[in-house]
Amino acid sequence: MSVVVQDRSRDPLSESGHSTTLRALLIEPRILRRVIRLDRHLAGLGLAVPHANCYVIERARLLAYADFEELELPLTAELPRDVVLIAKIGDEEVSRRSKLARYRQQLFHALVHLELQKKLSRVSVADDIARGKWERIGSVEHQEIHTVLLKDGLLFSESNPLETYIEFVAVYLELRYFAPEHLAAYFPAIRDWSAIDRLVSQDINHADIYQSSLREFADVSGRVSESSRESMSVTTVRRTSGAWRIRTRQLPTRARRASSVGNSVRAAILWTLETATGDGTLATSPPAAAVQEINQFVCRLQPALQLNNEQVSEWIDSLTPLLVPAASDI
Ligand SMILES: [Zn+2]
Predict the structure, then answer these.
(1) 90 alpha carbon to ligand 1 midpoint, in Å?
(2) Could you tell me if 245 and 317 lie in one domain?
């Protein structure tokens, strides 16, 4: 069971609670890391994946990087344009109560991202707005906030002022609602929190989002323990005596099947997994079959994204090096 939240705002039956459109999914952390790696073009083995607890992504991009089986969704599931992904927490890590509390925070954090991204994506001068916000917050404070968020793995290294601002607001509001006692220590350079609150409130009705996250979260609580017990892996990797042991079933067959239904990214990852040696070590570069799948994937995207031939080459060149890191996370 992966479906945890239903998008009542999109559903005319929301008043009666018969919503069917899914908005947030609890998924395996390795799947979420892979989605983020591919979506943010993070190359490099062993590189920590930022923001790996939750992530907001457009449906089309999500389904390019992971299929319904990996997302533990029925084939009839409907997804809205934007989907919130939350990494599952293992049963052994925390108590059920703590787990629920952390899911609730992640959901709220992600909904703040979603709201701000939606709002600011409609504004042509969003970058200028973000720069104006930072001027009002102050350059010393900006520098400290950026450093803290980067160090805590919440920012991507190339994050621009707008992304940093959105992340700051999401973290600030998360602390404000769930752990206000930690706010001053987390961002010590900020002295006037009421000024920050006024600034943030110009962009987002956070009280509404908080209430909405609580309502939506009510759908989650009864399903978490069931969800965390279920296994959905088609490929299992375990670290045994210091070596990776990979249990796979018919990787070439599965790769061809994924390809035949148009899931080129999954096919490419499966072909890359096929290069694993007995101890689970992958080849340093993906095999030709995997590269071919990436070529097909980008060519299929070409008309939708209106890419010229040079851009197609750039996409292929940037996605191909991501395959080995993505397959390593499986
Ligand atoms: Zn965030």
Answers:
(1) 21
(2) yes
